[in-house]
Specification:
The chain has about 300 residues and is α+β, with helices and mostly antiparallel strands. Helix content is about 25%, strand content about 30%. It has a 7-stranded antiparallel beta sheet, covered by helices on one side. The protein has a 3-stranded antiparallel beta sheet with strand order 8-12-13, with helices on one face.
Length: about 300
């Protein structure tokens, strides 16, 4: 069915034995196999876990348009770069603003009290170590969200891995979701790069603390500690989430069911009772005494 050209293409490929020997070391391997049966190798002891590296890592370097904020005005600083700097061994995490490869312009420590906010989906506001406010404009919403996601993880690590971290990504509209309100369920979520999706009528425990304050149509980035996510059991529906895993998720609020305020109950009706209270009996007693005095005076007048 195939011509000679196709036969040549799919025909066997021959390689000289000298080339195989040079690539795989067949002679040395054969000699090693032969001697292996005559020698004893002690079992290797497991190596202790390596301590955290003391190296500083540069994460997510990206181009931005930077603005300094002073007196309520935005002053353009042109095209610059920003990145996250992380030293896990020292728990040192920072945002840096730099130009080129060797000129650092500003830096801001990343910690629980960091003053950071995202506006209009692409502007990240940062307070640097010199108390100077910056507004960093990313080239796209996707890059801004990726940077913010990594930033939230660093804040979570700096807190010891026990704090819930949240960032508002879009404002939404309508009334805020209160602690007594409920979001529409079931909740649909996607976990892991494998793309496994789950559907559940029960929300993660951390949503009770992470969702209040959102509005319809708003979105928020949440970093949930293991105790507020799937805990020690992990996620049986998705094996990509192991036990005691921190969960980073983007949440969009689609519908809110407001808790209706019930009107106060009406006062109970007055029950008629044959037994009168002490006040009522005293009034009747006083009326009775007055009537008896009137009758006595009338009789005295007739006798008089």
């Amino acid at each position: 069915m195939f011509g000679s050209t196709e036969d040549d293409d799919f025909g066997p490929v021959t390689v000289g034995s000298s080339k195989l020997a040079s690539l795989f070391g067949s002679e040395a391997r054969d000699s090693h196999v032969a001697n292996q049966s005559l020698s004893y190798s002690a079992p290797k002891q497991p190596k202790p876990p390596a301590p955290p590296s003391n190296q500083t890592h540069l994460l997510l370097p990206t181009n931005i348009t930077a603005y300094k904020i002073s007196d309520g005005q935005y002053h353009s600083q042109g095209r610059l770069n920003t990145a996250l700097v992380a030293n896990i061994a020292k728990s040192d995490y920072r945002i840096i603003i730099y130009q080129g490869s060797d000129k650092q312009i500003a830096q801001a420590a990343v910690h629980e009290a960091s003053q950071l906010s995202l506006s209009r989906s692409q502007y990240l506001s940062v307070l640097d170590s010199q108390n100077q406010y910056w507004s960093l404009l990313f080239d796209s919403t996707a890059r801004a969200h990726a940077f913010l996601r990594q930033l939230a993880v660093l804040m979570h690590l700096q807190s010891g891995g026990q704090r819930l971290i949240k960032f508002d990504l879009s404002a939404g509209e309508g009334a805020e979701l209160g602690a007594e309100d409920s979001a529409e369920s079931p909740i649909r979520f996607r976990l892991g790069r494998a793309g496994g999706s789950s559907r559940s009528s029960a929300a993660l425990p951390g949503f009770d603390r992470g969702l209040p304050g959102m509005r319809k149509g708003s979105s928020r980035l949440l970093v949930l500690p293991a105790g507020m996510a799937f805990g020690s059991a992990g996620n049986s529906a998705n094996p990509t989430v192991p036990p005691n895993a921190t969960v980073v998720c983007f949440v969009e609020l689609l519908r809110v069911k407001q808790q209706q305020q019930q009107p106060p109950p009406p006062p109970p009706p007055v029950e008629k009772s044959q037994n009168m209270s002490g006040d009522d009996s005293s009034v009747i007693s006083e009326k009775g005494e007055t009537s008896e005095k009137a009758k006595l005076l009338s009789r005295m007048a007739k006798m008089g």
